[in-house]
Structures are given as C-alpha cells and as structure tokens.
Write a structure and sequence with these properties.
alpha/beta; 4-stranded parallel beta sheet; 8 strands; 20% strand; 2 domains; Rossmann fold; 219 residues; globular
Length: 219
C-alpha cells in the first residue's frame, strides 16, 4: 500500500447510505477514508439518563475502532451533536461535527439568513430551524421532503435536489444569503458542481472540507 498523506475516520449511522459515497467521491489521491457504523435510533437527541449513557458508550466504542487508523474523525450523524456536543468532544480531540461545521462556515461568510432544504418530516425540520435560530442563523424559507428512513433519504436523486435549489433561488434571491441542504444521509456530492447563483452548503461537504483543513494543518 502507498504511504498515506492522511486518514479520515468516519462514524456512520447504520441506516446512512450516503456520507461514505460522498467522501469517497470527494477524497483526493493519497487521502484515505476509514468508516465504522453506529446503531440507528429513533429521535433527534438522547434525552433520558439511560439514552445518554448508551449514546456515550456506543460512541466511545466507535471512536476506539477508528482512533489508531485515523488522523481526524467525522461524526457523521446529527443524533446527540446539538445538545451533547461536549460529550462527543470529551471522547476525542480530533472529532468533527457536520452540523457545527455548517454553522461555522455560514458565519464565516456572514450568511446569517438561509433557505433550508430538509429531507425530514415537518416536526424534525421545525426542530432544526429552532436550533439554527438559537445560533443566530435565521431560516427565511424552507421546504421538507417528509422522509423518515435514513435509507429513503439516501435514495434521493440529485435531480430532486436541483429542482429544490432552483425553486429556492427563484423564490426570493434577496431574502437569504445561502441555501443549506440538511442531513448526512443525503448524498450531495454532485451538488458541489451544480451551477447556481447562491452559495449552497451541505453537511457532508462542510464536514469533508473541515477534515481536509485539519489534515493540512497537521502536516
């Protein structure tokens, strides 16, 4: 095997069939991606003591499987990352949270007003809007696909995303600064090359770009 220029570890929900594909398509020669999976769960966050303890144990196990073969680790799921990020970061100093990176990138561009494209149902989409607005990122418009299964989300065709991007751009180009496509279970690799007048940001692309920055700074 050729010597590696860097290794990205990837923690993936069991029902996510998209984030690995995106990383494999984005990764340059000499950088390798190494993944492991975590059990899928219902809900957006671990709330009870029992749920939180199980979440921490599952995460610790996943990190231990990747730690020695990875220079940086992407926690490729939303579950637990909003209100329990301190738990995640306490287990590894080299871990990246996709949704957090989206917020960081939006703020770095002063993109405080966004249009949200969500694959989730209405309840989960509204929860996401509340979370982003608590971080001073304001959702000026949104659409949701009403999908529940991670696999169903991963099966979304790029043409569907293009239509939603175009619809957002036509809707009100002056009302928002960027279009954000949510979910690591949604393959967005091809969106990176889609020509649009608005800045488009996705969780998988934001997390991948941060991982590459981490590797560059490490070297």
């Amino acid at each position: 095997m050729i010597s590696s220029k860097g290794r990205i570890g990837l923690i993936v929900p069991a029902n996510n069939a998209a984030i690995e594909y995106d990383f494999w398509k984005l990764v340059p020669e000499g950088i390798t991606v190494h993944s492991t999976r975590m059990p899928s769960v219902k809900g957006d966050e671990p709330y009870t003591t029992e749920e939180t303890l199980k979440f921490k144990a599952d995460l610790q196990s996943a990190i231990s499987l990747l730690d020695k073969v990875s220079d940086v680790i992407v926690y490729g799921r939303t579950y637990g990352s909003r209100y329990h990020s301190s738990i995640i970061k306490s287990l590894s100093k080299k871990i990246i949270l996709p949704e957090e990176e989206v917020i960081n990138k939006l703020k770095s561009r002063n993109a405080n007003n966004i249009y949200l494209i969500s694959p989730y149902n209405r309840r989960r989409t509204l929860n996401m809007i509340r979370f982003f607005e608590s971080k001073s990122i304001y959702v000026k418009g949104y659409v949701y696909m009403n999908k529940i299964s991670g696999v169903d989300i991963s099966n979304t065709e790029p043409s569907c995303l293009y239509k939603l991007i175009n619809k957002a751009t036509i809707a009100d180009t002056d009302n928002f600064d960027a279009i954000y496509i949510a979910s690591t279970a949604l393959s967005t690799y091809e969106v990176k090359h889609y020509n649009t007048s608005k800045f488009v940001l996705t969780e998988n692309i934001a997390a991948f770009e941060r991982a590459m920055e981490f590797l560059e700074n490490k070297n």
